[in-house]
Design a protein that fits this description.
single chain; alpha/beta; eight-stranded mixed beta barrel; five-stranded mixed sheet; 27 helices; 58% helix
């Protein structure tokens, strides 16, 4: 212990009369204890290094580590010097030991400031460093070092001054702050070290004095190690708490994706905060603000630091964001599955509900009925009363249907427009369904002024156990029943076996019609249009015939279905192409019927040009029904363009529609074809008056007239007498796939036995004209 004992004895020389102890005189066992203590302090340095390696990297840990390292080196140097014999090496180690003591005193200042938030240490370090430097310089001068006890007393007094400076700084720091438990423990360790250092100079027993002088810094080292252990433990606890906080945040965040209620999520977040913070006083609030936003707060009077407050804020933000998402989801669901006008479930919601109900009924083996309601005359009502009145009508229908069928097994929805449905789970038998349909029909009658009474047309379809679970089929059957109800006088209809057979037959016919269009089974038969006086064939009309398994089907058998499915468009184009080939083959003008639906196509003109070609437009007549032509505004530009190219436009079935004289003058029309219903009665005064009026109307507008449906010679004679120049009918020639050139009609007063023949034009250009001569 040679390096410490001389200084201790110098510092206590005023109270102790012994001279400086020679290093070599220190007992060996004291050196061994001192060496053991150095190893122990080195082990404690690992603990302080772990403290410094924590996430926060505290400044106090750095100074504590440096202070403990100085103490360990001081113990190690003192122990090694105690084992050596007097000489140069021992002298060098003694000086190193002196420097380590000085370093111990100087490191005490920044360490104290780091632990206790003391004042700035610059001047204090300077105040302690000056006497320590003087002490080191004096010790290096041999004359001073070997001058005897007075010199030792003078040199030792410099250590006393430095020690007093350090103690003063400690007192000042402790006076400015309240001392914690661990701060008090560290101060006690320091006092113990000072006491051991002072006591080593007064002990009469040299062994005990040497031991105290050798181990006086150990209490400080243990105090620093204990503090490091506590701080490491605190760091571990803090890290564990941070992990618990992160796990809690993750759990609340995951729960936010599965929960559907913000209040339930708030309770879970509050419980998580209570568990993590070990604070049962944590409470939470959630309140809405403007524009669908929410504010959530988690609070407690016992929150201690910023980490806990940040944790509560994070969890609260998750809850508020989830509440906003839930609100937005409910709004989107209302938009996606609810009708904006009536508030009823929309088509998508009805289909989803029907699917769920049918799946459940398939398991429970119960019936499900779908009531399909349509408001009669709604378009007319909407035109008279405006959209606001129409919306009010729809809302009244929705309110009526909500309470029309009592029970929890009903579900009311709006498919769109004026179409509503009622889903009845565990539906009753058909007689009760008929009573429900009748009550729905009779229970709602709107008698608004200026409008005919509006009622509901009701169709009901029922799913039976064992049927295929098909939502679309059930809706389609109910819709079919509703359409049948519109045609009937009762206004309601149940989808029964008879209607099912009719629908199945229509489905089969539809499939056959689609296959016929695809396979090109529609062929053109040509009926002549002749001069009523000379019976010369002036033109032919291409009439479509369906070759169905070798049997020709007339349009009356399939025309309505073709128009409903839209297949009338490709059929019409096929007739137009065949008519163009017939023009080349027969060298005779042709007339082709064109559906109004075809004229409403956006590329109608291009389709017609593709089917007919780019030439010989003047030999083509397109026939449009009067009832289809008048309301089809989009057809006017197309017909005007075709007419400008030379095509003639004929109004077929004239007299059966509702065109006015003023409107007829604005239509691009060249020919009026008198309907067969008027020709059939032409031999009566009433029928002749109608035909005469049509002829005069045509003459006033510069239009030609063709009478169709001539079946008797008397009809032909009457038409000739009325002035009709062109006629058409089975009496004059039935439709056939070959050129219909026939001779005079028997029984006519205009009878001529000479046959008709067609003579081609001798012109050599690519056009031709038709000249009809008698043989």
């Amino acid at each position: 212990m040679g390096a410490v004992s001389p200084e201790c004895q110098v510092m206590s020389s005023g109270a102790h009369a012994e001279a400086t102890i020679v290093l070599g005189s220190v007992p060996t066992w004291v050196c061994a204890v001192q060496l053991l203590a150095a190893g122990l302090v080195a082990g404690l340095l690992v603990l302080q290094w772990l403290w410094w390696r924590t996430d926060r990297r505290p400044v106090g840990a750095v100074w504590g580590l440096a202070w403990s390292a100085d103490i360990g080196l001081m113990l190690l140097v003192g122990a090694v010097a105690g084992y050596l014999a007097p000489g140069t090496v021992q002298t060098v180690l003694t000086f190193v030991h002196l420097l380590l003591v000085a370093g111990f005193l100087l490191l005490a200042l920044p360490t104290t400031r780091a632990f206790a938030q003391g004042p700035r240490t610059a001047w204090w370090v300077a105040g302690a460093a000056v006497p320590l430097a003087a002490h080191a310089i004096a010790w290096l001068v041999p004359e001073v070092r070997d001058a005897g006890p007075r010199s030792d007393l003078a040199v030792g007094s410099t250590l006393v001054v430095a020690t007093l400076v350090v103690l003063s700084y400690v007192v000042v720091t402790l006076g400015r702050h309240s001392v914690t438990v661990w701060g008090a423990l560290l101060v006690a360790a320091g006092l113990e070290s000072v006491s051991m250092l002072v006591a080593s100079g007064f002990m009469p027993d040299r062994d005990i004095s040497s031991l105290l002088a050798a181990l006086w810094a150990v209490p400080i080292a243990f105090g620093l190690a204990a503090l490091a252990l506590v701080r490491v433990r605190q760091s571990q606890d803090e890290a564990s708490r941070q992990h618990r906080m992160r796990d809690a945040v993750a759990r609340v965040s995951n729960a936010a994706w599965f929960a559907r209620d913000a209040d339930t999520l708030l309770l879970q977040a509050r419980d998580e905060a209570r568990k993590v913070l070990d604070d049962p006083a944590v409470e939470g609030t959630l309140r809405p603000i403007a524009h669908g936003r929410f504010v959530c707060e988690l609070y407690s009077a016992q929150v201690r630091d910023g980490h806990e407050r940040a944790f509560l804020v994070d969890v609260a933000q998750i809850v508020s964001a989830a509440a906003e998402r839930y609100a937005l989801t409910r709004q989107l669901n209302r938009t996606a599955f609810a009708d904006a006008l009536t508030g009823l479930p929309n088509r998508r919601a009805v289909q989803q509900h029907l699917h769920e109900v049918l799946e459940r009924a398939n398991v429970e083996r119960t019936r499900v009925s779908l009531v399909y309601c349509d408001l009669d005359g709604f378009k007319r009502y909407n035109d008279v009363h405006g959209h606001a009145g129409g919306d009010d009508m729809l809302c009244r229908v929705a309110t009526y249907l909500r309470g029309a069928i009592p029970g929890e097994e009903t579900f009311v929805g709006r498919l769109g427009g004026d179409e509503f449905v009622v889903v009845i789970s565990r539906a009753p038998l058909d007689p009760e369904l008929v009573a429900i349909a009748r009550s729905l029909r009779e229970g709602f009658v709107d008698r608004s002024p200026g409008n005919r009474p509006s009622r509901l047309s009701v169709g009901i379809a029922t799913w039976q156990p064992g049927d295929v679970v098909d939502v679309e089929a059930l809706v389609r059957h109910a819709d079919t029943a509703m359409l049948e109800a519109k045609r009937s006088r009762s206004g309601f209809r149940v989808f029964d076996r008879a209607l099912r057979r009719a629908v199945e037959a229509e489905r089969v016919q539809r499939s056959a019609l689609e296959a016929a269009v695809t396979d090109g089974l529609f062929t053109a038969h040509y009926q002549p249009i002749v001069d009523a006086r000379t019976l010369e064939v002036l033109q032919v009309e291409a009439l479509a015939r369906w070759d169905h398994h070798g049997r020709l089907l007339l349009p009356v058998d399939w025309l309505e279905l073709a128009e409903e499915t839209g297949l009338i468009v490709p059929i019409g184009l096929s007739m137009l192409s065949q008519a163009r080939r017939a023009l080349d083959r027969f060298q005779m003008p042709v007339s082709v019927n064109l559906a109004a639906r075809h004229l409403s196509e956006p590329d109608a003109l291009e389709q017609i040009e593709t089917a007919w070609g780019s030439t010989y437009w003047e030999h083509l007549t397109l026939e449009i029904t009067e009832s289809a032509l008048v309301p089809t505004v989009a057809a006017i530009p197309v017909l005007s363009e075709l007419r400008a190219r030379g095509t003639r436009i004929a109004v077929d079935d004239f007299g059966t529609g509702y065109s006015s004289l003023a409107r007829l003058a604005r239509l691009p029309v060249d020919v009026l074809k008198i309907d067969r219903s008027f020709v059939r009665e032409v031999d009566t005064e009433r029928g002749a008056s109608v035909v005469r009026a049509i002829i005069e109307l045509a003459a006033a507008h510069g239009l030609d007239v063709v009478a169709e449906g001539v079946e008797r010679a008397a009809d032909l004679d009457a038409l000739v007498q009325l002035g009709v120049r062109r006629v058409q009918g089975n009496f004059l020639g039935r439709a056939a796939p070959t050129v219909p050139v026939r001779g005079p009609r028997p029984g006519s007063q205009w009878e001529d036995t000479r046959p008709l023949r067609v003579v081609p034009s001798p012109r050599t250009d690519d056009r031709f004209d038709l000249r009809h001569h008698r043989a």
